[in-house]
């Protein structure tokens, strides 16, 4: 058994979490000062994420970028760092040399994994809303691939559409997604 790269009994700040050595064998997130470990995403999950990135990137205006699996400081009262599957964020924010901050993010996207359904569909959206992230998409990769689109209204996410096959949104900018292409054989 290998030693953990962190002390599981320690209450971590965001800065302490960011200073930990990188370990690519697991996904680490910070939840209320405690480090939470989960396995890396599955092959299908990563295919969906990569294809979604490929579709979004050319549609973004010059001031926005799309990023995959980066640490996101939710800037909440209790230390929380999440790793959204994808984010659309300010291209020229202060994050270039530091952790992404919630205030720079326009959209978080989670792709449901079998081992983290509640985390992806309930806990993370609640935290993203608390952090003030204006848009959230939940992608379910089980055929047929579906997307549920949420907008932040009065500090809570409200579902604005549920889609199969294709959808278009106007926030954070005009984006169209072909859901059928996300997991095509």
Describe the 3D structure.
- The chain has 185 residues and is an alpha+beta fold.
- It has a single domain (41-181), classed as tt1808, chain A.
- Helix content is 18%, strand content 36%.
- The protein contains three helices and 13 strands, in the order H-E-E-H-E-E-E-E-E-E-H-E-E-E-E-E.
- A hairpin with a 6-residue loop joins strand 4 (72-73) and strand 5.
Throw out a few tags for this protein:
185 residues; alpha+beta; tt1808, chain A; six-stranded mixed beta sheet; five-stranded mixed beta sheet; globular
Q: Tell me the name of the CATH homologous superfamily.
A: tt1808, chain A
As a whole number of angstroms, the C-alpha radius of gyration is 16 Å
Q: Sheet with the most strands?
A: 6 strands, mixed
- Strand arrangement within the widest β-sheet reads 3-6-8-9-10-11
Structural class by secondary-structure content = alpha+beta
Terminus-to-terminus distance: 38 Å
Summarize the structure.
The protein contains three helices and 13 strands, in the order H-E-E-H-E-E-E-E-E-E-H-E-E-E-E-E. With 185 residues, it is an alpha+beta fold.
What secondary-structure arrangement, pairings included, does this model have?
Blueprint lengths: L13 H6 L6 E6 L2 E6 L3 H14 L7 E5 L3 E2 L6 E3 L3 E5 L9 E2 L3 E7 L5 H14 L4 E6 L5 E8 L2 E9 L1 E4 L5 E4 L7
Parallel strand pairs: 4-7, 8-9
Antiparallel strand pairs: 1-2, 1-5, 3-6, 4-5, 6-8, 9-10, 10-11, 12-13
